[in-house]
Amino acid sequence: MLSSSFSSSSSSIGRMEESASSSVYEKVSLVVSGNAVVVFTISGCCMCHVVKQLLFGLGVGPTVVELDRDSSGRDIHSLLYSLAGGGGRQPVPAVFVGGKFLGGIEAVMGCHINGTLVPLLKDAGALWL
Fold this sequence. Notes:
By secondary structure, the protein is of the alpha+beta class. Helices cover 49% and strands 13% of the residues.
């Protein structure tokens, strides 16, 4: 699951920001826990397209959340940035399999190349082969 690192603040602005962050965290957690495979993307992103096509090609029908078309997209993008480790890493595509954060394009392609992606997808219930 996701790991939370929201800090509390004594100011009302800090509490509102924390509440908004908690709400985004809860929204992402709900989507991720309720679907075998979730891909957070930005429409027009070529790497997002590659990940989606790979999954579709394997026979997986992932839940796709396009952040630029979602009302909470900016906040989710920030949360994904922190999950990706920051440091200039692009947070999308962000792939969750079986409720766990797998990673971005590098992690997905690495798992595909080393043969661990299909077993992960089977274990998550995304493939029945």
